[in-house]
Amino acid sequence: MSEALETPPQPGKPGILERRRFPSLIWLVPLVAALIGLSMLVHAWLSAGPEITIAFQAATGLDAGKTPVKYKDVTVGLVSRISLSEDGSHVLVAVSMDKSAENLVRADSRFWIVRPRIGLAGVSGIDTLFSGAYIGIDAGQSEASGKNFIGLETPPTIINGAPGKSFVLHADDLGSLDIGSPIYYRRIQVGRLASYQLDPDGRGVSLQIFIDAPYDSFVGAQTRFWNASGIDVALGANGLKLNTQSLTTLLAGGIAFATPAFAAAEKSGAAQTVYELAKDQQAAMAPPDGPAQYIELHFERSLPGLSIGAPVQFAGQELGRVVSINLDYDPVKQRFPSVVGIELYPLRLGRALDKLPKTREGTDPALFMRRMVEHGLRAQARSANLLTGQLYIAIDFVSNAPKVAFDITARPLILPTINGDFDQLQEQVANIVAKVDKIPLDSIGRHLDASLVSLDQTLKQTNAQVLPEATRTLQQAQQSLGSAQGMLADDAPLQQNLNQTLLEVRRAAQSVRELTDLLGRHPESLLRGRPDDPKPAPAGARLPANTQESSP
Amino acid sequence: MSAPPRAAQLHVIACHTCGMVLEDAPGHPGHGRCPRCGTTLHRRRPNSIARAWALLIAGMLFYIPANLLPVMYTNMLGSGSDNTILQGVVEFWHGGSYGIALVIFIASVVVPCSKFLILGMLLMTVQRRSTWAMRERARLYRLVEIIGYWSMLDVLVVAIVAALVKFQSLSDIEPRTGILFFGMVVILTMLAAMQFDPRLIWDSEDT
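Structure tokens for the assembled complex are given below, as produced in the milestone run.
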């Protein structure tokens, strides 16, 4: 230690290294960092697709920076901004699309918000319950790319490019149909109702339907469409028939189509062909009606039970229907006759129409009808159903119909009428009622009442007096019978005595018989006394035999 | 003023690693090697300022994507979303978790930014041989060195949460590229602080 204090410590000698000149490699680090940042910037810039704006009614469920835009469930964009339009009527959703989705954004591309939807036809978008709403996109066909779009409020029923064909149906009203209602062919769902709109003149509805491939080939020029909603109940001679397409159609409506078997096979109809939508299958399959002929009928009486739409029959064929029922006033008779308007479809006569003699006046319905009326053609309100009192109009030839003047100039034509069978029935019923009325029900009732009162009294008397007596008598009789039974019992003394007596009587009878026997054989014994006993017979031998042998 | 002698005046040099004091060959262009542990000897860290600058700039460059890119993907009940650091802070703040928001903000914004500022300031002053507030600057440097380790907090949080929350479709948390850049920022700033030779602060005292 002391040595160390005397001499200060000498630093050691380091080994000498040659200094090497390094280029300052450390600057590579920020260079690499800058390159990485730059490459990311370039990448982001290159991958940024177009920014589009979609207008929606409301931005429910949309979230800027979060809500994705999905095509076939692949995210192809992101909602970047949501703003209100200038007039505040709708929202503008700015979407930055991916570069890869550039060709999806065509001028006719459609956008809609996918939310959970629960309808009669099913549940859709259930996944969005958890993931939140997203915007669906359906790529358009247009060549031009778009920038501003108007979003659909409901998801489109048909995605562009889906194989199949569109057709247009024309109907009187929409019924229970709605967008997405199923379309059935032989009860297989083959398409959907895509959209509908009121005709410009407001007199009908046009329905766009979409039939999936390959079923679209079943739609031909002769194909008939009908509304398959609801239940078709048919009460026929062989019972009740219930006919529906499917449960869905009951609730949500549906359309069915078929091609009549009689239609010639032909190529499938071109897309966008207009078809008529019939009310039901029967109507759809019926041959075409042709133009209607309006005719008026004047009935003398009121017609309860006749409703608009009631059938008009000719020779059992349904030839038309009732379209109007009105009251008229007859000032001469001071009555209110009914005026019934009917529509006739002469084409429904079919073959008969072709064979009808062509009058020289041509085919003027008025002249034709005059001839028919001369032959006794009359209209009649008949009852179709006695239970409900429903009436229908029957046009028939009545042989003994009174002559009526037929005005061929009247427009509309007026067909003469006669009272229907229901009227006769009513008359008969009235007669019956009158006869029933004459029966003195009142006095019958009174007499019956008096008789019943006396019967009641008699019964009371019987109950109070006769019945106790009878009971007593019966009791006594029972007692007598009991003692009689006692006397007649096996071990009763009477019985015993009787038995003994009878025994004694038998014995006495036996003795008497023996005596008569003896006297018969030996009458002398009466005088001589009993003869000696003969020698005893051998054992078991019969006594009379022995005596006979010994006697001669 | 009888200041204590400096190593350069005594012609000695200390080993960085084992602290052995060795004789400095004055005017010698090369560097020595510690005879005890073999460490290369320097009077000051060579190229200290340039290296520190380079690493600091690299760190700052990486700080931009670290903030712009999402650091975490959270998927709760099917609603997935990417979150950048600042989005997370804002969300926590709006959600009422002020404490968590503050912690994340300090760990991921205040600390890295102050590191950039302090290191930059130290490097600038050293380059300009400024004698201003040398003691405080030395203290700041030690502070930067100490908090350097703790800046990894964000990365750790993301790593742990991503490892813990894995319930498939129910809820899922995944790290995203932003956290990689953030980790790079932390590492680069730590390296920059290590490259900076605090003795340089005092060198300007002589002139």
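The first strand of chain B starts at residue 12 and ends at 14. Chain B has a mean pLDDT of 83. Further analysis is deferred to the final report.
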